[in-house]
Amino acid sequence: MVSDFMVAGLSRRVAPGLLVAALCLTAMTCQRVPLLAPAGSTITLTAQATTLPLNGTTTLIAQIIEPAGTAPQSGTYVTFTTSLGSIQPSEAETDSSGQVFVKFTAGTQSGTATITALSGGVSVGTTGAVKIAIGTAAVGRVIVNANPALVPAVGGTSVVSAVVLDLNGNALTSVPVSFTTTAGILSTGVAITDQTGTALTTLTTSMTATVTASVGAQATTGTGTGTGTGTGTGTTTPPASGQASGSVTVGISAAPTLVITPPSTPPSAGLPASFTFAVTAPTTNGSAVRSLTVNWGDGGSQNLGTVTGNAVVSHVFTVAGTYTVSGTVTDTAGNSQTVATAVTVIAVSRPTIVITPSPQNPIHLNTVTFSIQVTTVSGLGVVDTTIDFGDSIACSCASTSDLGGATSTSVQHVYTVPGQYTVHVTVMDTAGQTTVGTTFISVS
Predict the structure, then answer these.
(1) What is the pTM (predicted TM-score) of this model?
(2) Which domains does the chain have, with CATH numbers?
(3) Residue 345 has what pLDDT?
(4) The 3-state secondary structure of the chain, one letter per residue
(5) With 80 as the cut, is the pLDDT of residue 139 above it?
């Protein structure tokens, strides 16, 4: 095909490809006509990411191939359109390989962006359009955890976290997560996922509660349930729905039990009394024992630490009477149980003291030997023993002798003046009791 045009009064016929150049020669300026893809070409559009968080970005690539299977002339114009978000630039030129690179920005609205590319009369068409799920439309699944998974029966708190993943398993940021619970109170009903795709809320409850985290405007409750470790996985709805949810169950921790067994016979004041403390942790929904504290009822207390099973502990009551011994066992979940038992402490039997002088009827200025025997009940000891010979006025010599903690000993003494004397032996025992034994001696 050729065209006619006039240059300096001459009529010429030229090929169409030369027409524009010829016309430009006749004008002071010439506006460049954009290069477009020839008819019969194909455009293939791809995206580096098919799911994006709000305000997320990805690169779009358009590839043009002419009917002959080659790339078009460099600089061929391609126009991009999107139903959601924005493309910069919206028009761009191909490189030498027939490719165009532009940036897609998701924006602040959740949904599915449908993106097309065209050049001249060539388009990707509806089947070649790229679809990018944005925000909640990109949600694939929700994984819910609770820490701790058990709270005390008296009430407690658990931090519930929901990790939101997109259809490709990547963390989905900046999307709202709705939390609901079957019992208790949540600190927030809606939370936004952070850079790790995690949204948090805090549950306060004294009853078993199932917390559900949902993503999507009309998300339905998933069937995921929490395990003993407080993890849960929700069901994933079809990708086009942009809805997913997961659940976790926070249970009630069972308290450990405590049984106190006092001595089988009434203990004596000043002597060790053995008590058995039996701690049993629950087999279901139980937590580790943190401490067992005993109040002896006499002003003393004792922390036995992390007792599990039987612990035999001795205690000395210094004064006879009736005491209430109580124990409080506490577990790591905060549960505690207090158990008490009464114990009657009787006065301890005093030591017996036998004093035997030899000879029985000594003569003054002669040596007298005193044999001393102190007998105590089992468990009772002697702290101090002192003998007073009874002649402190008549004798200028030492009239008393400290025998220490002896329970059996002999001691000698000389009376310088005849007379009747009373000998005292004073014993202090480990129960704090003072016992005095006496005997009489006649010195001629």
Answers:
(1) 0.55
(2) 42-128 (2.60.40.10), 137-253 (2.60.40.10), 257-345 (2.60.40.10), 352-443 (2.60.40.10)
(3) 94
(4) CCEEEEECCEEEEECHHHHHHHHHHCCCCCCCCCECCCCCCEEEEEECCCEECCCCEEEEEEEEECCCCCCCCCCEEEEEEECCCEEECCEEECCCCCEEEEEEECCCCCEEEEEEEEECCEECCCCCCEEEEEHHHHEEEEEEEEECCEEECCCEEEEEEEEEEECCCCECCCCEEEEEECCCEECCCEEECCCCCEEEEEEEECCCEEEEEEECCCCCCCCCCCCCCCEEECCECCHHHCCEEEEEEEEEEECCEEEEECCCCCCECCCEEEEEEEEECCCCCECCEEEEEEECCCCCEEECCCCCEEEEEEEECCCCEEEEEEEEEEECCCCEEEEEEEEEEECCCCCEEEEEEECCCCCCCCEEEEEEEEECCCCCCEEEEEEECCCCCCCCCCCEEEEECCCEEEEEEECCCCEEEEEEEEEEECCCCEEEEEEEEEEC
(5) yes
